Fold this protein.
Amino acid sequence: MRIPSKTIRYFLCGLAMGAADVVPGVSGGTIAYTSGIYETLLDSIRSFDSGFIRLLLERRWMEALQHVRWGFLLPLACGVLVSIFSLARVILWLLSEWPDILWGFFSGL
């Protein structure tokens, strides 16, 4: 089974966004903008609107699922979560081992 290249790209963008979110002063939104997915991200978030809720309340499950761009959001969210959980441990370790250097690095950002 072959994974589509767009799915891999969205996952990698999510990894970069998550890494940016772990670093103080850096925004995952900036990474989304520079990687060219910012508008798609906003449109995907906007799809959780009253129409989506109405479809859920009317139990029109398939239409509700099709209302949201899951093919974009799921790989992106998985990348963000993997990055945050893996890098958070690294940041905590760096804070305990080399706090002065790490805070100096963060201050330089």
Observations:
- The mean pLDDT is 91.
- The first helix runs from residue 5 to 22.
- DSSP finds seven helices and no strands in the chain.
- The two ends are 41 Å apart (CA to CA).
